[in-house]
Amino acid sequence: MSARAATRKPAKRKAPVAKKATRRPAARRAPEKSDAYQSFLAQAHAMEREAAQRYDELADQMEVHNNAEVAALFRRMAEFERKHAMRVLGSFPETPAESGEPRLAVGVPELPETISNNELHYLMPPYHALELALESEQRAVRFFDRVAGSSKDAKVRAAAKQLAEEEREHVRLVKEWMRKVPKPEAGWDYDPDPPNYTE
Amino acid sequence: MNAPDIAAFKPQDFKSDIKPVWCPGCGDYSVLSSITKGLASLELRPENVAIISGIGCSSRIPAYTTCYGFHGVHGRALAVGTGLKIARPDLTVVVTGGDGDGYSIGGNHFMHACRRNVNMTYIVMDNHVYGMTKGQPSPTTEPDWHSKLSPGGTGVRVFHPLVIALAAGANFVARGFSGDPNGTAAIIAEAVRHPGFSFVEILSPCVTFRPEQRAWKEQAHAASVPMTDDPVRAARRVMTDDGFNIGVLYAGNRPPYQPPIGKGMEGAMARIEKEFAL
């Protein structure tokens, strides 16, 4: 050890940490009461971004499991949702850039347009993937319809009505897409070399 | 360069570029999402968090995050996590794994980690089966679960991790469900915030070897009673519930175990870093 090191005061160690985090989580802060319109736009924007992100994750899952067709479908849906997020920003320039994070609490679902991670099957055909997409678009329609019918703020009601119409158009497009892909036959999940132990 | 603003860290910032290889539909995808949401909600920075694991499907999690990670030895994740937290109390230590890794191979470490009450969080993704090794029964597998590897079932009663944790002295006990990612994220955040050893058991279906577990989404429900600080009451509740009560069940007040840094150890980290410098 060098003389300098020997005479140097040992670095002060922090006292044992009593709590692992002292800040209150952002998700628990009460929203401002005066900005219903801003909060709603932030929520709408977050919905599209989260949906896009989830589609990308689902596409990743399918790529890893060599289901290229469904992976490509999910990737395309992710792109649609990203474009829709941009359109939300374009139609409503007042949309805050960074907010609308979902509230974290037991029983509070993910945002309405987000597909659950747990509905996939590695052999699922495109039709099933489109069924999931359809359900998510329908959830978005219901969400915006509900806001359009219940908000006390006229600007929120008008924006929600417009977004509900856009989501209705997506429902129509997904249904049209479903007519173009074959319906899965019985035994679609048959795997001649399944992962399960079979001997 | 200035460090980015803490508020800039989003759940996505806690996810690495490595694509998970879990089966599509596996509950662990949602648990990963819950962990990243929970850590982001606490306004932590990835470089201040260490995620430690053992062996098994769920133990792959450290690689899928941008936090420091240690993919350890089967059943020994808690030993590694304990050592790390004692040496580096400034880090947020989250230990992860599955029911086989944590309750069988690591069962002894589990009990003693609860007893020691070191300030860290243990997340177990429980799917009642050894998935990675093709579906052998685990300590939480129902005695009558029939499979080709356990014809007629094992006939062995299940391990009750929550009750064992309470009896052994865990300072925080909760149950989550992967089908409720936001709820699980909130539980994880609360567990990390709570001083001492916090244990979160997450029901996370194995869709390949236990496809019937997809029905858990119909069975899981929020606990109808508030959490308690009485371990006896908590244990009674857990022993008599349906196994699908979701929420924080117990939060105790035991002070965490954190020994003082021993004499002569003050510069230990610097010496080790110097020794292992490339």
Strand and helix map with partners:
The complex is a heterodimer of chains A (199) and B (278).
Chain A: H1 3-7, H2 36-64, H3 68-91, H4 126-150, H5 154-180
Helix pairs in contact in A: 2-3, 2-5, 3-4, 4-5
Chain B: H1 28-41, E1 49-53, E2 68-71, H2 77-87, E3 92-98, H3 99-105, H4 107-116, E4 121-126, H5 161-168, E5 172-177, H6 181-193, E6 198-203, H7 216-219, E7 221-222, H8 231-240, E8 245-251, H9 268-276
Parallel strand pairs in B: 1-2, 1-3, 3-4, 4-6, 5-6, 7-8
Antiparallel strand pairs in B: 5-8
Helix pairs in contact in B: 1-6, 3-4, 4-5, 5-8
Query: Structural class of the secondary elements of chain A?
Result: mainly alpha
Please report the total strand number of chain A as a whole number: 0
Strand order of the largest sheet of chain B: 2-1-3-4-6-5-8-7
Low-pLDDT residue spans of chain A: 1-34
Q: Biggest sheet of chain A: strands, sense, closure?
A: none
Span from first to last CA of chain B?
24 Å
Morphology call of chain A: elongated
Which pair of chains has the greatest number of interface residues, and how are they split between the two chains?
Answer: A-B, 46 and 58 residues
Q: What would a concise description of this structure say?
A:
The complex is a heterodimer of chains A (199) and B (278). Chain A is mostly helical. In chain A, 55% of the residues lie in helices and 0% in strands.
How would you describe what is shown here?
The complex is a heterodimer of chains A (199) and B (278). Chain A is mainly alpha-helical and 199 residues long. Chain A is built from five helices and no strands. Helix content of chain A is 55%, strand content 0%. By secondary structure, chain B is α/β, with parallel strands linked by helices. Helices cover 31% and strands 15% of the residues of chain B. In chain B, strands 2-1-3-4-6-5-8-7 form an eight-stranded mixed β-sheet, sandwiched between helices. Chain B is globular. Chains A and B meet through helix 2 of A and helix 1 and helix 6 of B.
